[in-house]
UniProtKB/TrEMBL annotation:
The keyword Repeat applies. PANTHER family: LEUCINE-RICH REPEAT-CONTAINING PROTEIN, LEUCINE-RICH REPEAT-CONTAINING PROTEIN 34. This is Uncharacterized protein. InterPro entries: Leu-rich_rpt, LRR-containing_regulator, LRR_dom_sf. It comes from the Eukaryota. Keywords: Repeat.
Length: 470
């Protein structure tokens, strides 16, 4: 397993590196990828040359395309790193930051960037974030051409752009040939069913992708079904996100295919099925299918219609085969009986670390039972989201006592006592990335950690990319 140090600043690496700097995240994954070339001095010289040429070539391409205003953020970040004797490793041009909010990338801007990456094939740029811009199908075509040639980019995000089925088809064709990209975030692009089918077809030939996010892409039943069938035999995919689809009345049939994945696939660790309007019958079918699964560790089922199916969810959590570490059941219709069933299952469960039951209809008795269970019968759970349920005095007092006794558990409610009365309030969580400056250290660190995990020989799912940019 590859070790990494979270305390390091990984936004860039020094031009001169030492063989003893093995804890630097960038060096770790670079050595893993290029373990056959670490002693090749001529290759290193070419990389340094390309690093110097990058900005010059980018500006030349802007001139070729008659772009009057080159991307100021790119120029600023590159120049700032160069002054420090460092080179750019992450091309972070998300359109929802302050410097780009009113200057989001258009198709023409993407042409110049992709041409630069295509010509230089720069081995020092390992991630590219083009999310929240105005990139359409012609921009996607430029990205696809770049992906067919560039072998250095490991993480690519085009989240929340204007790419349709045609652009998805171009990128999918490129990924059939690209074997270096490990993480691809295509969420919030309306590629619809045809685009989803193209992505599924791509996975038949791409055997290196490890993270695929297709949330809110307007996928329908046929594309989700094909994705499920293809992923059964996929040799590398660890995390699949297909939340917010537009499945039709054949949801249960589709859910069967999704559960069948885990009867064959031993690589996939994380699945997101949030915002699907799944009924109790669909959820029951899914859990019946994964009852013998020993590999699924992260499951997100928020914003569905779960009520009575908490019975089979509880039985799954009590199952010795259960390997779940994270279970998200937020924003469902779980009542007091369901809440108590989940709480009772935690007595036997020894794997669940993160449980989200917020925004349900769990009553006071069940909340009290849950807190007492965590106080005396379960010491495994470390994070509980329970806000916006039906708290009253007994349950608030129970959670107040729990937080006084167990300091190792993080709970999203804050309790306090005033004049013999207990109160609770949701803990205010500050936004991870307030867009008052541009490149965030956390943003870069998340990408670096994800890249390290791509090459690590472990069973953990990929880093949550939603935390990179909010």
């Amino acid at each position: 397993m590859i070790e990494f140090d979270d305390s390091l600043n990984v936004s860039a690496i020094e031009e001169t590196t030492s063989s003893n700097n093995n804890n630097n995240l960038s060096n770790i994954w670079s050595e893993t990828i290029n373990n056959n070339n670490t002693n090749n001095n001529s290759t290193q010289d070419v990389v340094l040359l390309h690093s110097e040429d990058f900005l010059e070539l980018y500006l030349q391409k802007c001139s070729d395309y008659s772009i009057q205003k080159p991307c100021s953020r790119l120029i600023k970040e590159y120049s700032k790193l160069k002054e420090k004797g460092k080179r750019m490793r992450h091309l972070i041009l998300n359109g929802n930051c302050v410097s780009m909010f009113e200057n989001r990338l258009q198709n023409l801007d993407v042409f110049s960037i992709c041409d630069t990456l295509e010509i230089l094939n720069t081995s020092f740029i390992v991630s590219c974030d083009l999310s929240y811009n105005n990139i359409g199908d012609s921009g996607a075509n430029a990205i696809s051409r770049m992906l067919k040639i560039n072998t250095s980019i490991q993480h690519l995000s085009v989240k929340s752009n204007a790419i349709s089925e045609r652009g998805a088809s171009d990128i999918a064709d490129a990924l059939k040939e690209n074997h270096s990209l490990k993480s691809f975030d295509f969420s919030y692009n309306s590629i619809e069913d045809k685009g989803g089918l193209k992505m599924a077809e791509m996975l038949k030939e791409n055997s290196t992708l490890k993270y695929l996010n297709l949330n809110a892409c307007d996928l329908k039943t046929s594309s989700i079904t094909l994705l499920a069938i293809v992923v059964r035999a996929h040799p590398s995919l660890r995390e699949l996100r297909i939340a917010k689809t537009v499945m039709n009345s054949k949801k249960e049939e589709t859910v069967v295919h999704l559960s069948e994945m885990f009867k064959v696939n031993e690589i996939l660790r994380s699945l997101d099925l949030s915002f699907q309007s799944l009924s109790d019958s669909g959820v029951t079918v899914f859990f019946q299918g994964i009852m013998m699964c020993r590999t699924l560790t992260h499951l997100r089922l928020s914003a569905n219609c779960i009520t009575l199916s908490t019975d089979i969810i509880s039985r799954f959590l009590e199952n010795p085969n259960c390997a779940l570490q994270l279970l998200d059941l937020s924003a469902n219709r779980i009542d007091s009986d369901g809440g108590k069933q989940i709480a009772r299952s935690l007595i036997k469960n020894k794997t669940l670390i993160h449980l989200d039951l917020s925004n349900n209809n769990i009553g006071d008795d069940s909340l009290t039972f849950l807190s007492k269970t965590l106080l005396s019968k379960n010491d495994v759970l470390k994070k509980l989201m329970i806000a916006d349920n039906k708290f009253s005095q007994p349950s608030i007092q129970a959670f107040h006592d729990l937080t006084k006794e167990r300091f190792d558990i993080e709970i999203d409610v804050y309790t306090y006592k005033t004049d013999q009365t207990y109160y609770w309030t949701r803990k205010t969580t500050p936004l991870k990335y307030e867009h008052n400056v541009d490149t965030k250290e956390e943003q870069v660190a998340e990408i670096e950690q994800l890249l390290v995990s791509c090459f690590a020989d472990n069973v953990n799912p990929m880093t949550n990319l939603d935390r990179i940019v909010r």
